[in-house]
Each structure stands twice: as C-alpha cells, then as structure tokens.
Design a protein that fits this description.
Blueprint (H helix, E strand, L loop, with lengths): L1 H25 L14 H12 L7 H10 L16 H4 L1 H4 L3 H27 L8 H9 L2 H8 L4 H16 L3 H8 L12 H11 L4 H20 L3 H11 L10 H9 L9 H14 L6 H15 L12 H12 L5 H25 L8 H25 L1
Helix pairs in contact: 1-6, 2-3, 6-7, 6-9, 6-17, 7-17, 9-10, 10-12, 11-15, 16-19, 17-19, 18-19
C-alpha cells in the first residue's frame, strides 16, 4: 500500500513537471521582466536577495535599485508586505540569478499546486476512495486564479499548500507535521486570520499539543536564520506596514470595494473579520468534535471577503471548497438535476473569471463576487448532498 502511494506521488510530480515544461515552452524565451513568472516574483526575489546580503528588504531605495536592475519599469519599488521570514522560505531561489530563479519558481509553483491538490483530494475524496485525481487536478489547475497566481510568480500557492498539508496531517493524527505545515500559511496572515486562531485554539482545547509544538518549531526554524541575517527584522517590518498600510489598498474585499466606490479609505470596513472572530471562535471552542475539512472551507469563504486585504490571485485558496464540491460530484453524493446545476454553476464561475482575468483584465476590486458565488455553489452542493443522503436513508 505504501509503495503504491509513493508511486502515485512520483507520477504526480513527474506529470506536474512535464506540464510546467510544456507551459514554459509556450511562453517563449525569457526576455526579462514581463516574461512568465516575473511580475510579482521580482519583488519577492529582490527582497530575498537583500536579506541574504544582510540588507533591509523594506528599504525602498535598496529594493528599487535591485528591481530596477532587473527591468522593473515603474518609478517606485514593488514593495513586499509579507512577513520577513518569507525570505528564508525563498532563500534557495534568492541564491540563484533572477532568470534561473524565475524558471525554477514557475516549476516549483506548479509542483506546489499539484501537491496541495493531492493532499486535499486525500482528505475530501474518502467516498471516492482517492479515485478521480485527474478531476481534482483539472479543477485546481484550470481555476483562473490558479493560473494567474502561477504565471505572475505569486506565493499564494504556498499558503494553499500550508492549509492542505495541515488538513492532511490533522486527519491522520500526525499533529507535529500539521503544525509545521501551518507555518506556511503565515506568509500571508491576512488569508488565515480566522483559520489560524481556530486551529490553534482547537489544538489546545483537544490537548493535541503536537500542533502548537510543530508550529512553534517550524516558525523558530525560520526565525533563527532570519535573526542572523537581518537582526532588525521586526521593527523594520512594522515600520513598513505602518508606512504603507494595507488599509489604503483597494482590493476585492467588502472593505476594499466600499472604499473604492467612496473614493476614500474606510478603515473600519476593512476590519470586518475582527467582528467575525468571536462569532467563530466562541461557539467553536465549546464543540467537542470538528469536521475540519468542512469548517476550513467555510472559514476561507468567510475570510476572503471580510479580511483587511486580499488580491484576486489570493483567491487561489478557494481551491479548498472547490475540491470539496468536486469530491461530492464524483463520489455520487449528487444526482440528476442537482449535479447538472452544480457543474453548470462551476463552469460559469470559471468562464467569467477567465474572461475577467485574461481578456478584460478588470480592476482587482471586481473579483469580489468570486467567494460569494463559490460559497453559493458550495452550500447548494452541500444541501443537495444532504437531501440525497436523507432520501437514500428513507
């Protein structure tokens, strides 16, 4: 059984690398900034290189010099607002020249997506006994926000890998590794502002100490080299956040959309997630049992529209509820008209996103509808599955 699982993982890795090579070939030769994988990655690579050289990744002048040398066309630097330990995660890429780092990061991002999909499918597709992995891969890789995240060189797929790995190991009672995987989600803390405290609170409530121990160990493993390379990381990060606060950004969140249409920053509207924190955690703390796959999907669907900021490409974490829907479809939990309606709704969702992202190239604010539609499809599929199960029981 173990050998069979390892064979499947090896095949998955090889297929992902092959897909990556094919897609890169379609992009033509590397021509500097503007090529596939460079748009966002230029900021990550430049910040990482500064950390490795003992510099400050939040120093605008220093960051701009590095980015300008790579072909950055703007008159202002592309700032990195992630926690500085992202630079330690990306250190192997920062050691490489930019061209080679871009190529390797594109392949790595595809591999990350493939591995995250595999983890999620092992969690969700219990009734399907792990079959139809191809359907899961298609749903994950064809999601327009996934393609956009990969080809812009984003790190959002790492957050998805952290979420999926955490669920995978929680379900198998391997708590230390669940906590270690959870650290990956902290590179974009605004995306897990509800999920992270929920998992840690639950682990304490259930006395599953391996999760906070694994989380702490992995975080310290990142902070130790960071402290050696960049001792002033904490005040520099805080100054950068306060100097260019995310509250000023117009992103596809409820607060971002209200601020966009009002023409001014409304800070209170971008802190809606704070109001949901006690609503989520207080009843949750009193529960004895938790269906983490379902609860995670609901928390992510709630977080994306209410968080302080989240770009369209950050919606790649919607792959979690999307794969749950696909698992219900292929496991026979949905039948007839309900199944056809869910498939049609998914197709419409993907089609509209593809038109927006790749043809119209709309403003980021106009991706706000995505988590709401996915939530509607998810809840409809869940209700349809429950009714089907109830009918069979009768």
């Amino acid at each position: 059984m173990i050998a069979n699982q390892r064979t499947k993982i090896l095949i998955l890795i090889l297929l992902t690398l092959l897909l990556g090579a094919m897609l890169l070939n379609l992009q033509g030769e590397y021509t500097g900034y503007g090529s596939a994988g460079t748009h966002d990655f230029i900021a990550y690579w430049s910040a990482t290189r500064l950390i490795l050289e003992g510099g400050n990744p939040y120093d605008r002048a220093a960051l701009y010099r590095v980015e300008k040398g790579l072909g950055w066309p703007e008159e202002r630097p592309w700032l990195v607002m992630n926690p500085p330990w992202l630079g330690i995660v990306l250190a192997p890429f920062g050691l490489l020249p930019f061209r080679e780092a871009v190529f390797l990061w594109l392949l790595s991002n595809m591999l990350v997506m493939g591995l995250a999909t595999y983890f999620l499918w092992r969690v969700f597709a219990i009734e399907a006994k792990g079959r139809f992995l191809w359907a899961a891969m298609a749903a994950a890789f064809l999601f327009p926000q996934t393609l956009s995240a990969i080809f812009s060189g984003q790190v959002s797929p790492l957050v998805l890998l952290g979420i999926s790995g955490t669920l995978f190991y929680i379900e198998r009672n391997r708590d230390f590794w669940a906590g270690a995987m959870l650290v990956l989600t902290t590179i974009k803390p605004q995306l897990i502002c509800l999920l992270l405290p929920a998992i840690l609170l639950w682990s304490v409530r259930q006395k599953r100490w391996g999760i906070p121990i694994g989380f702490s160990a992995a975080l310290l493993a990142l902070l130790f080299p960071l402290q050696l390379l960049f001792p002033n990381w904490l005040p520099s990060y805080l100054v950068s956040i306060m100097g260019s606060p995310p509250l000023d950004w117009f992103t596809p969140t409820i607060g971002g959309a209200i601020s966009y249409y009002q023409g001014a920053t409304l800070s209170w509207a971008k802190l809606l997630w704070v109001a949901f924190l006690p609503v989520v955690l207080i009843p949750f703390y009193r529960q004895e049992e938790t269906d983490w796959p379902a609860f995670t999907s609901l928390l992510l669907l709630l977080t994306l529209p209410t968080t302080t900021f989240a770009w369209g490409i950050d919606q790649v974490i919607l792959v979690v509820p999307l794969l749950q829907i696909v698992a219900w479809l292929v496991s026979g939990g949905l039948h007839g008209r309900a199944k056809a309606m869910i498939v049609s709704a998914l197709f419409i969702c993907y089609a509209i996103l593809a038109i927006q992202r790749f043809i119209l190239r709309t403003n980021e604010v106009f991706y706000l509808w995505t988590p709401f539609l996915v939530a509607a499809i998810y809840l409809s599929a869940s209700l349809g599955r429950a009714q089907s199960t109830h009918g069979e029981a009768r």
